[in-house]
Amino acid sequence: MKLTDTGIRAAKPKAKPYKLPREDGLFLLINPSGSKWWRLAYSFDGKEKLLSLGVYPEVSLADARRRRDEARKLLAAGVDPSGHRKAEKLAGAERAANSFEVIAREWFGKFSTRWAPSHSSKTIGRLERDVFPWLGDRAVASVTAPELLTVLRRVEARGALETAHRILQVSGQIFRYAIATGRAERDPSQDLRGALAPWKPEHYPSITEPKAIGGLLRAIDGFSGTFPVACALKLAPMLFVRPGELRQMEWAEVDLDSAEWSIPAGKMKTREPHLVPLPTQAIAILRELQPFSGRGQFVFPGVRSPRKPMSDAALNAALRRLGYPKEVMTLHGFRATARTLLDETLGFRPDFIEHQLAHAVRDPNGRAYNRTSHLPERRKMMQAWADYLDTLTAPAAVLPLRAA
């Protein structure tokens, strides 16, 4: 007997469930609540079975007939429709569990604990903005090189070439993690070498000529801005830490009597604690600053709230006020200044310098130096560096040779 839309709409609920007549095994079950369920009665392997095909009217009569016909094709091929549906659900769950986004977030959660907060936020931000919307739902093992390239081209097209290269690098790490954990067999990012326009990391602008450094240091001495910014500017070339480490310095980390600044791992890019020996000039600056901010948490408190550190832009903006554009000098550039002159002019060992820069340094046996490695030598180096900066700051340092 044929089912009709008119007959289905006219069917009213009764005290007990009942069925509208079958049509090649397809029937509609009408419950006392008024819900109408499509069912398919069929026989497989000598057993009578029922397969749910959805609810009317969300599943129309035409849709129900199509689903019935698909099930009958499976039966003709010797496949149980119920078993096939369960397998599809399991496969779908597996694909969801092994999607690119799930694997990427798992990888991020595992490795980002050792990254600096800024690096972590940039990495996950790039993935969320530029990758997940297009590849996030795809099974990680099914992503192809052309699909990944399409994502990268989209980033490249808006002029973000560095971001495109960073995403390619991170994607490779995610695919290799998927391979290591048994969710993929190969890394398609390897097929894209040379596919993007070339890009080289830009180094932070810095001044390494002693006479020019002397001029910059004298300009800093004459800075007329706020007292905390003036003190931070004086310490930046002397301690050559990363800008974020300097502006987030806390009084609890500083031991003026021992002349040490102990930076906890959570603030470091390497996620390892770092020790900065403080020369006498730095101690004098901090003691002068102590009455101003010593009762608070941060050595360099923010202007709007002393409960927060100085803003990220404050110090570089101060350099701009002194007449040093970002193409000439940045706060981060003091690290390159110190690295160059400590080696080439003062003659300190490169491994002492690299360790004081908080770079990854290992001894000849491959062991990583800890925070106190070569501490006596580094104390001497930091004091010698501060003394050298004093000589550059003195007016005599820039006089012509015959006048001196």
Automatic annotation (TrEMBL):
<dbReference type="InterPro" id="IPR050808">
    <property type="entry name" value="Phage_Integrase"/>
</dbReference>
<dbReference type="GO" id="GO:0003677">
    <property type="term" value="F:DNA binding"/>
</dbReference>
<keyword id="KW-0238">DNA-binding</keyword>
<dbReference type="InterPro" id="IPR013762">
    <property type="entry name" value="Integrase-like_cat_sf"/>
</dbReference>
<dbReference type="InterPro" id="IPR053876">
    <property type="entry name" value="Phage_int_M"/>
</dbReference>
<dbReference type="GO" id="GO:0006310">
    <property type="term" value="P:DNA recombination"/>
</dbReference>
<dbReference type="InterPro" id="IPR038488">
    <property type="entry name" value="Integrase_DNA-bd_sf"/>
</dbReference>
<dbReference type="GO" id="GO:0015074">
    <property type="term" value="P:DNA integration"/>
</dbReference>
<comment type="similarity">
    <text>Belongs to the 'phage' integrase family.</text>
</comment>
<dbReference type="InterPro" id="IPR025166">
    <property type="entry name" value="Integrase_DNA_bind_dom"/>
</dbReference>
<keyword id="KW-0233">DNA recombination</keyword>
<dbReference type="Pfam" id="PF13356">
    <property type="entry name" value="Arm-DNA-bind_3"/>
</dbReference>
<feature type="domain" description="Tyr recombinase">
    <location>
        <begin position="203"/>
        <end position="387"/>
    </location>
</feature>
<dbReference type="InterPro" id="IPR011010">
    <property type="entry name" value="DNA_brk_join_enz"/>
</dbReference>
<dbReference type="InterPro" id="IPR002104">
    <property type="entry name" value="Integrase_catalytic"/>
</dbReference>
<dbReference type="InterPro" id="IPR010998">
    <property type="entry name" value="Integrase_recombinase_N"/>
</dbReference>
<dbReference type="Pfam" id="PF22022">
    <property type="entry name" value="Phage_int_M"/>
</dbReference>
<keyword id="KW-0229">DNA integration</keyword>
<dbReference type="Pfam" id="PF00589">
    <property type="entry name" value="Phage_integrase"/>
</dbReference>
<protein>
    <submittedName>
        <fullName>Phage integrase</fullName>
    </submittedName>
</protein>
